[in-house]
Specification:
Blueprint lengths: L6 E5 L9 H7 L3 H11 L4 E8 L2 E12 L4 E2 L6 E2 L4 H14 L21 H4 L4 H5 L19 H6 L18 H15 L3 H10 L11 H6 L7 E3 L6 E3 L10 H4 L2 E2 L1 H12 L3 E2 L2 E2 L3 H8 L5 E2 L5 E2 L10 E6 L2 E6 L9 E5 L3 E5 L2 E5 L3
Parallel strand pairs: 1-2
Antiparallel strand pairs: 1-15, 2-3, 3-4, 5-8, 6-7, 9-10, 11-12, 13-14, 14-15, 16-17
């Protein structure tokens, strides 16, 4: 069964581009037709596309519907969950506290946060912030602990000690949402503000991300919000999927809702060493630390995943939450090569030099 597409953000890296906006738009000739075929071939209700060149959004357009049932058009202002692309916001927020001396990247995290407990003393004496953010603690996901539960973030933090490791530390990539929930609570302990408050004050507000929030309740109040649809089994009929809302406890791993317009601000900062609007919003070294490879493995496309969210040659993050999925990729090259970030279950196709996205099962 397919989970259907909601939003795409196309990016262009800054390397070697200058102000060649016209070259980018020229390369987009025929792109509208291509996106129409994507929607048809994958039975997707709607897609939004934006292209960032250097430090500005040069193209933004919606295709199809943000609400398929009511035939409401998808636009660059359509707000959708970005799922686990939230994790980079959490990593950056934690890095800001490293800059302030309240956390460290590579010392045992208990030195900064004595109340944290893991399954055994070896983990207690060894696990670092970088380990938790890089999925290399040797502890697997244990998602049934938080899924559809009413545990608070503190209660989940206190339950980290029950998660038995499956592999030796720093040997395997084992995805773990609860580690990000734990980091979110550490941010609260070390800053005196909730994760939500800290991210809004230190990241969202300086980046002028006014349409970005944390809850489905906020999202559905927006004049333009996405509605998830999927296919009925063994048919092409689409039906609406309920929103998943029980995510407050693990919000730091996947709660953010946003749109193309706001995310373009975020991506401008990521592509410009943390600068946005003439101000240094993200400390350059914090961004550098999140880009450093920490654990790598090839995927089926022979693309390296590494570090907190990315690898050096091709930063990428794919994620999913309920009927929403997302992927973020940034290719740095000396040519004008747009890349894609999506919210929607996706597969990658190549056509005319562009990275494009369509829905998959």
């Amino acid at each position: 069964m397919k989970r259907l597409l909601t939003t795409i953000l196309l990016l262009v890296s800054t390397a070697g581009l200058g102000a060649q906006d016209s070259d980018v738009l020229k390369r987009l000739e025929g792109f509208d037709d291509y996106m129409a075929r994507v929607l048809k071939d994958w039975n997707g209700p709607g897609i939004g596309v934006g292209i960032v060149v250097g430090d500005k959004l040069v193209f933004a357009k919606g295709y199809g519907y943000r609400d398929y049932e009511n035939k409401q058009p998808f636009t660059p202002g359509t707000v959708c969950p970005i799922a686990s692309n939230t994790k980079l916001f959490t990593a950056i927020a934690a890095g800001m506290l490293v800059e302030e001396g309240k956390l460290t990247w590579d010392r045992p995290v208990r030195e900064s946060v004595p109340t944290i407990r893991f399954y055994n003393e070896q983990l207690n004496n060894t696990v670092t912030l970088r380990d938790m953010l890089s999925h290399r603690t040797g502890i697997t996901r244990h998602d049934t602990i938080w899924y559809k539960s009413d545990f608070t973030r503190k209660e989940l933090f206190d339950r980290l000690k029950y998660l038995e490791p499956q592999e030796p530390m720093r040997q395997s990539f084992l995805y773990n949402n609860l580690m990000f929930a734990g980091v979110g609570y550490m941010i609260e302990l070390q800053s005196g503000r909730t994760w939500e408050q800290f991210v809004r004050e230190r990241i969202l507000q300086p980046l002028d991300m006014k349409s970005t929030g944390y809850t489905i309740a906020e999202m559905v109040k927006a004049p333009e919000h996405g509605v998830g649809f999927t296919e009925k089994r063994d048919s092409f009929d689409l039906y609406k999927i309920p929103y998943y809302e029980d995510i407050e406890g693990v919000a730091p791993c996947g709660a953010i809702v946003s749109n193309i317009q706001d995310l373009s601000h975020w991506l401008v900062a990521l592509m410009n060493n943390g600068a946005y609007g003439g101000k240094q919003v993200i400390p350059a070294d914090v961004l550098k630390q999140t880009m450093q490879p920490a654990i790598g493995l090839p995927n089926t496309a022979a693309i390296c995943r590494a570090s907190t969210r990315r690898c050096r040659s091709c930063p990428k993050k794919r994620s999913a939450s309920s009927c929403w999925s997302s992927a973020t990729t940034l290719h740095r090259s000396t040519t004008t090569s747009p890349t894609t970030s999506t919210s929607g279950c996706s597969v990658w196709t190549r056509r005319r030099g562009f990275s494009a996205v369509s829905t998959s099962g």
